[in-house]
Amino acid sequence: MVSKGYHELTIGNYPLEWDVMQVDGKKALQVLDQANDAKAKGSIESALSLYKEYLSMVDPSFTHGVWLSMAEILFQTNQLQEALVHCDKGLEIMKDFLPCLELKKEILSSMERVEEVKKVEIVINRLQQEEKAKWDDPNHYYHYQ
User: Fold this and answer.
1) What share of the chain is helix, strand, coil (3-state, %, to 5)?
2) Is the separation of the CB atoms in 48 and 73 below 8 Å?
3) This protein's superkingdom (predicted)?
4) What are phi and psi of 70, to 5 degrees?
5) Do residues 6 and 38 both lie within one domain?
């Protein structure tokens, strides 16, 4: 369950106010596990419902993988437009989320939206080249332990 608290702070003469989302992390993770289990068992409606519940429990910045999972379910059930919307939600949160981009490409291909497929392919190829360059660079931090 998410609860919001109101907080105030004054810096100099400038009052700052903000809402803080408080999350029950254990409960959220339980719901996410249940959603993943339901998805694995093919319980589509249950999985989607649990994913939506999870989304209501956590800060949106941690939800790109959930949007992908929901998009996968919708794609598998041939709800292409809705799957595309969910992919885009995941990409709003993490614009370079390769699994979401790959699924988006597959969805657009199924919808025969060739020009959009090409645009997504360009982004995917760019990201893969950037990642390869990191691994090819012996001075990149990926190689430090």
Assistant:
1) 70, 15, 15
2) yes
3) Bacteria
4) -65, -40
5) yes
Quote the domain boundaries for residue 87. Answer: 81-145
Record the tokens describing residue 93, joined without a space: 């949160």
Residues in the chain: 145
Which residue numbers in the chain have pLDDT < 50?
1-4, 6, 18
Question: Is the same domain home to 50 and 14?
Answer: yes
Sequence-separated contacts (24+) of 25-32 with Cβ below 8 Å: 27/1, 27/57, 28/54, 28/57, 28/58, 31/57, 32/66
Q: Which residues contact 28 (CB under 8 A, 6 or more apart)?
A: 54, 57, 58
Burial class for 44, CB neighbours closer than 10 Å (0-12, 13-18, 19+)? middle
Ramachandran bin of 78, using left for φ above 0, alpha for ψ from -120 to 50, beta for the remaining angles? left
Q: What is the pLDDT of residue 25?
A: 80
pLDDT of residue 11: 57
Q: Supply the pLDDT for residue 59.
A: 87
From start to end of 12-137, where are the E strands? 14-23
Give me the half-sphere count of Cα atoms (radius 13 Å) on the Cβ side of residue 113: 14
| Four-point Cα dihedral 58, 32, 76, 96, nearest 10 | 50
